[in-house]
Amino acid sequence: MGHKNTFTLTFLVITFIFLLPVFSNTPPKATPFKRMLALVQQEPVILKYHNGPLLKGNVTVSVHWYGHFTPTQRSIIIDFFQSLNTSSATHQHHHPPSPSAFSWWQTTATYRGGPCTLIVGDQTLDDNYSLGKTIKTTELISLASKSKKTSNSNNIHVLLTASDVEVEDFCMNQCGTHLPGRVEKGKTVYAWVGNPMSQCPGECAWPFHQPLYGPQSPPLVAPNGDVGVDGMVISLATVLAGAVTNPFSNGYYQGVESAPLEAVSACTGIFGKDAYPGYPGNVLVDNTTGASYNAVGVNGRKFLLPAMWDPITSKCKALV
Ligand SMILES: *[C@@H]1O[C@H](CO)[C@@H](O)[C@H](O)[C@H]1NC(C)=O
Ligand SMILES: *[C@@H]1O[C@H](CO)[C@@H](O)[C@H](O)[C@H]1NC(C)=O
Ligand SMILES: *[C@@H]1O[C@H](CO)[C@@H](O)[C@H](O)[C@H]1NC(C)=O
Ligand SMILES: *[C@@H]1O[C@H](CO)[C@@H](O)[C@H](O)[C@H]1NC(C)=O
């Protein structure tokens, strides 16, 4: 796959205003915003399957940390990965039972080809900013591939950039991306997500931060107490779901190949029931910390995970 076709996790707010009308393949009307308030729940979202391979079976996720992340930040994200393959998420007695992050990921198994089990592989750290603090899109793959490949298995090489790393197009039109790699003995896909905290929390850490544009609702309290990293979890969830269901730009998506709406990006902005543009929906709240969440993972972690398109019902499915 020589050509580069990035999935773009588009700004939430821009999506609300400009992309939702595209769901219906009708030209945007002069007052798209009013239309959309009615559209969020009703518009049929249909991701078409384009006959290409998906990532199924055991998929090794290797992680390259670029720039400074604290050990706590790294453990939030590694716990998130591990929560996707662990069915026995620990439920705390004092909280109502809540859906697991594992059950969220299980929806990917209903896309053709059966389950996909993510296994965290090697992690590499680059605290020294070896390519500087400004990264071009063309450098993303070489950075992502610094994490080791596990031969003969399917791989996702994930590059995570710290909040002080400026990545080309980060914040301009994307919070993260995935790129096709090789299809040999094992299939390889590259993914990148940046910490938006100091660059664009209003775009890439919503709903934990006030949105930059559009309808405003009060920000939610981030479940792991880190607005930037909890925002990265949402972007990672989006990118990972897209990476396994549309790894080579010919899997499941709606719209055009160069700007596809994928498993989660087709459901942008929905986290719970009754979501509408600017309002993430009704989610669970931890009475002790005030944090909003809709999924529980390993080590008692809580996450707020975005709705995912469910091929069985052809609807965006939120966990709560
Ligand atoms: C995935 O890995 C597990 C444990 O290593 C193994 O038992 C299982 O057969 C593997 N599944 C596939 C589809 O290769
Ligand atoms: C949390 O607070 C809400 C509203 O005050 C209440 O309805 C709910 O029962 C509480 N949950 C727990 C587990 O205490
Ligand atoms: C889940 O991931 C962990 C590490 O990421 C791995 O040790 C474990 O074998 C995986 N479980 C399954 C069922 O693959
Ligand atoms: C990072 O830079 C420090 C100081 O320049 C150096 O001592 C260290 O070896 C470097 N680490 C890596 C992994 O290159």
Automatic annotation (TrEMBL):
Family recorded in the similarity comment: Belongs to the EXORDIUM family.
Q: Which GO terms describe its cellular component?
A: apoplast
Keyword entries, A-Z:
Apoplast, Secreted, Signal
What is the protein's name according to its record? Protein EXORDIUM-like 2
Judging by the UniProt lineage, the source's domain of life is: Eukaryota
InterPro entries attached to this UniProt entry = EXORDIUM-like
Q: Where in the cell is it found?
A: Secreted, Extracellular space, Apoplast
Where does the record locate the signal sequence feature? Answer: 1-24
Q: Name one Pfam family in it.
A: Phi_1
PANTHER family named in the record: PROTEIN EXORDIUM-LIKE 2, PROTEIN EXORDIUM-LIKE 5
